[in-house]
């Protein structure tokens, strides 16, 4: 079905456009034009006084609407996803916190089931942990943290293709073998909850770690040990060309000055904005 949205303030890569229109077919944007003349055969939506932006793809959100995806139930998945759809998301990768592999298998079953539904907004599963550096993980992960175990993750990833992203600490024993394997499966692997410095980040990028989760948060910056100074994870990611980043741009996790720095050094092509939302979002 062809749809034309007119009279709204349109956000484009070149800036704001007024008195134009957006043509959509089957949920995809066909064209953004500076003409608001009616297109023959199109259903017209008048967005006067409103803003028109592309639908958000939420790639790091743990929950919402009172439910957490780690509950691994259909109710939790549907409720949390609907909470984000109300605020502009059109696609989402549900995020699991560190948990047992039994719970991960349950979440995989739910995710696979929901992805088969027509026009499902669920695009795949995102796992954070349980392979995390204990010193950087926070108390919410107590009891589940461990080093990568190929006897756990290989059988899981051989069984399902719904897992599209997995975040772990790259300095853990076995983390590089993990990243090589996930890369072979087409899974985006991200550094997270880490204290890795430049040599480790450089080596991690070489084996498949291509992204930095909630950049600046749960990772150190420039620091000093005794009389010597060292780059932290933050500076190491900046120095690694090709490594993408995500930031929680809510003005609380990061101030505006740091967001400007990320924009300046990584640029829009290598940066995305995430909510990292929890159940109470």
Mind explaining what this structure looks like?
The strands form 5 sheets. This protein has an 8-stranded parallel β-sheet with strand order 8-11-12-13-14-15-18-19. Strands 5-4-1-6 form a 4-stranded mixed β-sheet, with no helix packed on it. A 3-stranded mixed β-sheet has the order 3-2-7, with no helix packed on it. Strand 11 (89-96), helix 2 and strand 12 (125-128) form a beta-alpha-beta unit. Helix 4 runs parallel beside helix 5 and helix 6 crosses helix 7. The protein has helices at residues 74-85, 101-115, 134-137, 150-159, 175-184, 198-207, 233-239, 256-266; strands at residues 2-6, 9-12, 15-17, 21-25, 28-33, 43-46, 51-52, 56-61, 63-64, 67-68, 89-96, 125-128, 163-168, 188-191, 209-212, 223-225, 228-230, 244-247, 271-273. The chain is of the alpha/beta class and 281 residues long. The mean pLDDT is 95. The chain has 2 domains: 2-52, Urease, subunit C, domain 1 (Roll); 56-273, Metal-dependent hydrolases (TIM Barrel).
